[in-house]
């Protein structure tokens, strides 16, 4: 089985989210793993949407290494593609198609590496693969799996196959996504004094957010937390005082600012006239570069984290925000063959040689992890 061929087959499944429709691809990749001796489970996220949990060689004494990624992908966008986004075309060493980078290439490389790791001798503690539904909208598939009471078990280490150009990253910021709502009283626009303008309330709140500085120290790995208002809606028609307005708040937190503290600060800053509702609430994750597992991965990938300017953290959120704390805070690395700058882009591609390289790296990590257990 070739990683390029498997990636092409995975791209043919339309898992654009919404609606996702991950059941078919979940059963496809699950059947391949089952045919190679893996125990496979399909925890349901919602109708037509499945997660995949596949394991082999598990032990009561040693926790497995976990490889994880997501099955859904973002919409195609308004711009026309040069190739069919669901027919992976190879040109100039690049494999084009929606999901090639984010992250069906990573899924394919992980599956093949896991299968091939058992050809010589079984990895100590075994391997567990976790492929999730509905990650793109805020890691909801993994979160639902956790909240359902599913027995996920522990992990000796976690590898997240998100796009990093096969460069190992050791953390990412948290994500706190909120909807904010203001209420007013409607009136005819010619008599605004009879109403209470909800848009004005929202605008004043947004101005406060623009000026908001979280008074926390810089995280050595993740830097400072950030906040952004990305969407706003209010009113129904031009000639009425609006009685309702909504906007979104996106906080990217660090280990120096937990989400619960960010919520408290926002509540105090915006006051009682703004109603806040959490949509995604996931904290930052980070593993020390001095952890033996991270040192081992860095050596395999030829990375020296002590060099000034070396990138160490991802800019995006991953399922590790759910899985790492759930699985005994196992050391976690984000490492995948895709190109981060191509994620969510028109004419998305992944380099063929990076796909092949990822299989080699994953297999070496699985093998060398034996020496740490």
How would you describe this structure in keywords?
373 residues; alpha+beta; Aminopeptidase; Alpha-Beta Plaits; 2 domains; six-stranded mixed beta sheet; five-stranded antiparallel beta sheet; 9 helices; globular
CATH architecture of the largest domain: 3-Layer(aba) Sandwich
Structural class: alpha+beta
Q: What global shape is seen?
A: globular
Low-confidence stretches: none
Distance between the termini: 29 Å
Number of strands: 18
Number of domains: 2
Mean pLDDT over all positions? 97
* Percent of sequence in beta strands: 15-25%
Characterize the main sheet: 6 strands, mixed
What do we call the CATH homologous superfamily of the largest domain? Answer: Zn peptidases
Task: Briefly note the CATH topology name of the largest domain.
Answer: Aminopeptidase
**CATH class bucket of the largest domain:** Alpha Beta
Residues in helices, as a percent range: 25-40%
The total count of helices amounts to: 9
State the order of secondary-structure elements, H for helix, E for strand. Answer: HHEEEEEEEHEHEEEHEEEHEEHHEEH
C-alpha Rg (nearest Å): 23 Å
Strand order of the largest sheet: 1-4-8-5-9-17
